[in-house]
UniProtKB/TrEMBL annotation:
<keyword id="KW-0812">Transmembrane</keyword>
<dbReference type="Pfam" id="PF14697">
    <property type="entry name" value="Fer4_21"/>
</dbReference>
<dbReference type="InterPro" id="IPR052378">
    <property type="entry name" value="NosR_regulator"/>
</dbReference>
<dbReference type="GO" id="GO:0051536">
    <property type="term" value="F:iron-sulfur cluster binding"/>
</dbReference>
<dbReference type="Pfam" id="PF12801">
    <property type="entry name" value="Fer4_5"/>
</dbReference>
<keyword id="KW-0408">Iron</keyword>
<keyword id="KW-1003">Cell membrane</keyword>
<dbReference type="GO" id="GO:0005886">
    <property type="term" value="C:plasma membrane"/>
</dbReference>
<dbReference type="InterPro" id="IPR017900">
    <property type="entry name" value="4Fe4S_Fe_S_CS"/>
</dbReference>
<keyword id="KW-0479">Metal-binding</keyword>
<feature type="transmembrane region" description="Helical">
    <location>
        <begin position="152"/>
        <end position="176"/>
    </location>
</feature>
<keyword id="KW-0411">Iron-sulfur</keyword>
<protein>
    <submittedName>
        <fullName>4Fe-4S ferredoxin</fullName>
    </submittedName>
</protein>
<feature type="domain" description="4Fe-4S ferredoxin-type">
    <location>
        <begin position="236"/>
        <end position="265"/>
    </location>
</feature>
<feature type="transmembrane region" description="Helical">
    <location>
        <begin position="188"/>
        <end position="212"/>
    </location>
</feature>
<keyword id="KW-0472">Membrane</keyword>
<dbReference type="InterPro" id="IPR017896">
    <property type="entry name" value="4Fe4S_Fe-S-bd"/>
</dbReference>
Amino acid sequence: MEGNIVAAFTRFYKRMKRHPVQYTRMAVQIVFTLFLLFVGLRFYQFYEHFNSLGAEPFVPRPSAVEGFLPISALVALKVWITTGIFDPIHPAGLALFAFFVASGFVFRKAFCGWMCPIGTLSEWIGRLGKKLFKRNFDVPKWLGWLLKPIKYLILLFFIKFIVIDMPAFYAIDFMAGDYNKISDVKMMLFFLHMGGLGLKVILVLVILSLFVKNFWCRFLCPYGAMIGIGSVFGITKIKRNEETCIDCNACTRVCPQRIAVAKVKAVRTPDCSACMSCVEVCPVKDTLNMTVAGKKVNKWAVPAAFFAAFFLAVVIAKATGHWNTMISYEEFRILIPNVYNIGH
């Protein structure tokens, strides 16, 4: 028994030594997932205090929950751009949304590859599928071309409806309205008391992700699509040295987004999540490299810089008063018990 444990640990250590970035990424994903579960628990306790009319103890509202309100943040972004008013209702949501969208220009979709809880869940389900079926499947190339535009069409719908068509005064009214003030509570209750249709949709996505790794991220996620568009015009790219490449195809096989890295000179696709899997798995030194403004950088540079920028953005948001909501305790005391009576 002891020998088996030592052997397993030795194998794990050797794999970790060969792929330190990927094991670090996995650890970061686990830490952020646990943190967000803690945020969810604290937010539920915050809700229960008001829902029980004060019978349950008060827990401060965690502002990080606003990161799960991208539609509200998009409305707030429109208001900020058109009027200069920074959302006082969900300021952390706007700060996070603005940072993640802007980060695509410099760090590609590092948010998706390193931090996003939905991306993490989708990736882990894919790994489970590989263990169950001994492989990950993929959709036929023609079907992939048909599915890929879906996330951009969803994004286009929200951009047209909110950014283009919605008048600024209506966006301001929505932002300041009671529905938006407790949209985080409504979101939580939706997932806690999900109906049959919602459960069926999630079940279908889980099954698809078991067979096709990262199905949601690759074909359906509009948030990732928005960040990815910025990355196309950004300064960060993975480049392949065609002269030293031995065409082993390891980079393409390991890519969670199924990008054909081995067939391109530079990865310009908006799907790249800067996970660094391809760079780390390449057996030939300096054949695959991450580049910033055309210059080669260390494989740790982009993810490390992304997290440094993220934490700096959070510190700045807090220091400038753009993190905690202006909604008072008294207002929550009135709104939350009436959550089911408040509509758009």
